[in-house]
Design goal:
Layout: H1 2-24, H2 27-50, H3 64-73, H4 76-84, H5 93-123, H6 131-158
Helix pairs in contact: 1-3, 1-4, 2-4, 2-6
């Protein structure tokens, strides 16, 4: 719930800011998408180089306020606003509410599946899937996803 609330706040702030700025400066969309892709590459590289094998039975806890602040301050909300939300979504309540309801309908099940996979890997597969292997695999997926998004931006700029 804390993560969802942080996403809603962050996405609303980014969305209103970008949609208002975009009316006068159309390049803002490309710039925000580029910034979001840079963030994904940064996360991918950070995850790759910080990957460590974790000892079985050790866990790092995070509190609800820590999760809220971490989610509120990371630019993933910018990614959702830049790549997923249609232009103008945050300037009209009739567009904003359906978008946020759809986001909510998607984020809760995805979060639950993510928690279940993490619990499974932590309990059952810790000898097969090490922290290093899992972190590097996720890093590769994020990097490939960012590469695809970068291609999307480049094709929009070149063929615009």
């Amino acid at each position: 719930m804390a993560e969802w609330l942080a996403y809603v706040i962050q996405m609303t702030m980014w969305g209103v800011f970008i949609d208002l700025l975009m009316t006068e400066h159309s390049w803002v969309v490309v710039a925000t998408k580029f910034f979001a892709v840079c963030f994904l590459f940064y996360i991918s590289l950070k995850l790759w180089f910080s990957a460590k094998d974790h000892l079985p039975g050790t866990s790092v806890g995070i509190t609800v306020p820590d999760l809220f602040v971490a989610t509120l301050t990371n630019p993933k909300g910018l990614f959702f606003v830049s790549f997923v939300a249609p232009a103008g979504t945050f300037l009209s309540l009739s567009n904003y509410l359906p978008f946020m309801m759809l986001f909510t309908a998607i984020i809760f099940p995805v979060g639950l599946v993510w928690i279940a996979i993490g619990a499974l890997c932590g309990r059952k597969l810790h000898t097969i899937v090490s922290g290093r292997f899992l972190s590097r695999a996720i890093s590769l997926v994020i990097g490939l996803f960012a590469s695809g998004m970068l291609f999307n931006i480049a094709s929009q700029v070149v063929f615009a």
